Amino acid sequence: MTVYRYQAVDAAGRSLQGVVEAGNEAGARGLVRDLGLLPTSVRVQSGPGAAPTGLRLTGWGKSVTSRSLAAATRQLSTMIGSDIRIDEAVRIVGHEHESSPIGAVLKDVAASITEGRSFASALERHPRVFPEFYRASIAAGEQSGHLADVLAHLTEFVASKERASRKVQLALLYPALLAVVSAMMITLLLVYVVPDIVKVFVSRGAALPLLTRALIALSGGVQTFGLPLLILAGAAGIFFNRWLADPANALKFARFRLNTPPMRGFVRQLNAARFAGSLATLVRSDVPVVDAIRAAAAVTPNIYVRERAMVAAQRVREGTSLRRALSEAEVFPRMLLAVVASGEHSGRLATGLERAALDLEQDLEALVSAMVALVEPAVLLVMGGIVLLMVLAILMPIVNLNNLAGL
Q: How far is residue 112 from each of residues 28, 64, 121, 327, measured CA to CA in Å?
């Protein structure tokens, strides 16, 4: 994709300028016309003003979401299943989504198809919008003549990923807000409230309980070292991100997360479900097994699992059975391996993988629900316990002073 700077006039005759992202000059002019403008000059923009390819679209500044991709895929499946030409279907769906970033992407895809490209090769111009498994499925659907069915499978897959992600995000929103607000309140108490109370205790010369002395020490530490510690934490985060930028370090960390409690079960389940679901869709779309494994590996979040799946694909290319290759990877659950073995033996690998993917997704959903259900009370207990200790630390000296006054 190339960034083009345009000059145009609107219906009122006013001169406007801006930038769009398109595959060629003709596509850029078409995008400008779709904005209701008449282009007078369109030229390539280079240098620091250029936008990143495929991920974001100049003019909207927003990324393509899974929800909009699923909606567009469902509409394409319906229209192509109704014998509408591919380029026309893509163009119509692009107009339906003209207010979202994917609309401009689909218009460019339609322009590429009109120029003589295949649907799959047109999608390859936007690799960050259309994942590898998505493009591989489309290519297989075009070759086999079952493009509408492939799009239907892709719709369900993308939509299920969107539902799962949104469910987790919404469930964790309240605990996250609660933790942030509570942490801010505790910090403000330590910095502004506790010191004033300490002055009262010191002026009375009262003997302070251990809990109160600990609170005073913590308050002094926050006031003295709070900002340096915050800077140190930021520097540590930057250093860790740079450390992860090295592929070897990122692979080590991914393997650590895959094999270390308490997140080991969740990470393995998530990656197995994503891999099995993608592989089922690709095999159902008649994609060759080796290519299907590689494309499905690209969907897995953990790069160590991805690397082991790529090794399994190479083993299958060398003649090893799929079940044995996945078993040697040592990153997939036994249930998935048993289903793969049964599918290879019966010749119904796609059906078996779909059932395994469904079972893994259900187990993953139950695991996520349990984790989310525990997060909220855990946050409440931790923050409530901290606040309780602070209140006790403040009240205990006050009670002692009242007792002394009564004597």
A: 12, 19, 9, 42
| Statement to judge: residues 285 and 401 lie in one domain | yes
Is beta strand 38-44 parallel, antiparallel or unpaired with respect to 15-22? Answer: unpaired
Residue 67 C-alpha from the chain's centroid: 12
Question: 357 is written with which tokens?
Answer: 């993917």
CA distances from 315 to 251, 309, 327, 331 (A): 21, 10, 11, 15
pLDDT given at position 45: 62
Q: Is residue 401 part of a domain?
A: yes
Predicted structure pTM score: 0.65
Q: What's the Cα-to-Cα distance from 144 to each of 220, 287, 356, rounded to whole Å?
A: 71, 9, 25
Question: Do 98 and 213 lie in a common domain?
Answer: no
Enter the tokens of residue 97: 């989504």
Indicate if 111 and 194 belong to the same structural domain.
Answer: no
What domain range is 278 assigned to? 159-407
SS3 126: coil
Mean pLDDT for 259-282 is 84
Say if CB 254 and CB 302 are below 8 A apart.
yes
